[in-house]
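To make the argument concrete, we let one protein speak, a sequence paired with a row of structure tokens, as a model reads it:
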Amino acid sequence: MPATAFKDVNEKVTFCFASPNELPARHSRNGRLSVLYLLRRELIETAGYDPNTDTEETVDARGIKNRLFVSLIAMFTAFDLLAKFQLGDKNGVGKRFVDFLTSPTGAGMDKSNADLFYAVRNSLVHSFGVPDVDALAKLGLQGVELRRRVATKDGGLLVVQRKSWSTPPHTVAELYIDGVFRTLHTAIVNYRAALFYVDTQRRFAPMFDKYGTIGMS
């Protein structure tokens, strides 16, 4: 979408982060939609809900109901897109992905969990499965298991849990799909808040012009 279609960068931010519950016909601007908006709507739907009536808060509270792998792929795609908005598109995909996840204005994760996210992202996108033995070895793991949800007593959701056995040495990481969803929602909120600042807007604007909209009839 031409940059001239927006009055200023604040309009771009507002359009990019539009609520996924807004109807497409109302959201559309000159026949174009925000890619992030569309991705968030798709994720609500693959999770088993109606994006016209069910909010992301509903998904967070009730959990991903179906199409678990496809929903995870959509979440990782959203991290990829947000990472380009925040960091540009010149460095490698993996570094950018992990840097966004560990950024305090992104997901604010520790690096070991961010590396695990990237390994699972790659395995799902390229082979629709969990990381192979070579990828696991780089992470110091012997296995990765994808699970739906474990809530904590304080209302939180587990994202990653590692379980180890000493005989023989064996460590498995459990990745919780609902925890990934909450992590994505947190990252969206954090990055949206960071776009209040001029320096952050300067990097976002050209990336939004390049990747932020898509034409749909």
About this structure: The chain has one domain: 7-126+181-215. Residues 7-126+181-215 form one domain. The first helix runs from residue 9 to 16.
